[in-house]
Amino acid sequence: MFGIYDLDGGNVVPSIYYGLTSLQHRGQESCGLAVSDTRGERGNVKFHKDLGLVSEVLRQDVVRKYSGDIGIGHVRYSTTGASVAENAQPLVLSYVKGTLALAHNGNLVNTPELKWELIQNGAIFHTTTDSEVIAFHIARERVHSKTVEEAVLKTAKKIKGAYGLVVMSPRKLIAVRDPYGLKPLCLGKRGNAYVIASESCALTSVSAEFIRDIEPGEILTITKDGLKSNKELASAAAKRAHCVFEYIYFARLDSTIDGVKVYDARIRGGKSLAKSYPVEADLVTGVPESGLPAAKGYSEASGIPFAFAFYKNSYIGRTFIKPTQEERESSVHLKLSVLESVVKDKRIVLVDDSIVRGTTIANLIHMLKEAGAKEVHVRISSPPFLHPCYFGTDVPSNDQLIAASHSTEEICKMIGADSLGYMQTDYLEGMAGGLPLCKACFDGNYPMEIPDYTNAEFADIVKC
Ligand code: AMP
After folding, report:
1. Is cis: bond before 329, omega within 30 of 0?
2. How far apart are CA 86 and CA 435, in angstroms?
3. What is the Å distance from ligand 1's center to 76 Cα?
4. How far is the CA of 157 from the centre of ligand 1 (A)?
């Protein structure tokens, strides 16, 4: 998510484009922007969104038609609702108070209940996302509230789960972070323009200075008069639980989240692997891109030289999200090829950030061995994936999670490795600089209760 309000009235559209481009790693399915002029009419929000990458959807000839001094943008990676154009964000609603635009990162766990409340009052949904449910609740609350931020607060008290929100009303930009701080969100400033972004790398891309993270449970409202912070939700919160997967895989290497540099966390992860699972080898390499920093950490701590063993074709999209196993396998080959002269006759430590189904690592080990590698010792800078994520990380169901049904020894054999070591769950906090974490995908301890709607009266609503 990205949001910007230039109090000097400058056009924010180019900044939204650059900000979203630097957040592209967070979602590649669809994207869009909504922009308005705070000096114009209250319903003057214009928006453009579609399936595709930022460079495809927000083409120069398209965005040139848009301008305004306040705007938000979004790149989508779906976990709730299909990957179709209707589900692209920002969502823009016209209602009695003007226009409301919303971008959401995360996943709610009580959507059926929230949807039921709206459906009973005649609501008709245009999307299948939980984000639309949030937007409708804000719009409904707004009718009985003095300000939009009050409506956002009332809504935030009802929604449960992981959410970062960037909301734009005709004259305000509002940033919200769930009380657990599951998803990252930060604030920056460039001259007289305030910027909100999912990650600090997006601030850098628009030359904005990082000011601070939005606090868990904080609602930050930006108006022409400056900033106003409400922390009522934070004081009601039980505990903080930052998503550990941001540090392992999701966030960009040059981002800093909640005071912890993602790069440093990944280096620490690699170092811990070297201590827990030492092995005699000739070189350490990482799976590009996400395994490279941990490989460097492993190399530093073990003294085994680091080498690039793969060439990565940067023009191929993510392989993980391809729908069939066949497609996932062939795209690993399209994306990565082995540098034979580097690996021939070598004993190799191969580091990656995670094993989910085992597709990527099995293919890479096979490719390394075909290219003449003598031994391949796999080190993974996260623990085995054992549990579903309800908060917005796409983890396949248990039957596809290789670690849910196989021991480490079995996985080692299945992927064709000479040895396999996973990061220990106890070390995750150390890796993430001592932050309180949500690591439920590894240990099954969810920071909040996950309602079960499968047999309840809500079953039909879950589908619609
Ligand atoms: P797999 O091939 O199914 O074992 O997936 C593991 C690979 O996918 C690793 O190289 C990770 O970098 C990447 N990965 C892991 N989790 C995710 C996720 N939730 N979304 C996208 N990519 C992921």
Report:
1. no
2. 37
3. 17
4. 33
> Tens of pLDDT along the chain (464 residues)?
999 999 999 999 999 999 999 999 999 999 999 999 999 887 789 999 999 999 999 999 999 999 999 999 999 987 767 778 899 999 999 988 889 999 999 999 999 999 998 998 888 898 889 999 999 999 999 999 999 999 999 999 999 999 999 999 989 999 999 999 999 999 999 999 999 999 999 999 999 999 999 999 999 999 999 999 999 999 776 689 999 999 999 999 999 999 999 999 999 999 999 999 999 999 999 999 889 999 999 999 999 999 999 999 888 765 555 556 666 666 788 889 999 999 999 999 999 999 999 999 999 999 999 999 999 999 999 999 999 999 999 877 788 899 999 999 999 999 999 999 999 999 999 999 999 999 999 999 999 999 888 766 666 665 55
Are residues 228 and 173 in contact, defined by beta-carbon separation less than 8 angstroms?
Answer: no
**CA dist 1 to 72, 76, 164, 364, 373, Å?**
7, 9, 8, 33, 42
Give residue 247 CA to ligand 1 midpoint distance, Å: 14
Dist CA 338 CA 350 (whole Å): 12
Pocket around ligand 1: residues whose beta carbon is below 6 Å from it?
249, 287, 290, 320, 352-360, 393-395
- Mutate which of 77, 329, 356 for ligand 1? The one with the most ligand atoms within 8 Å of its CB, which is 356
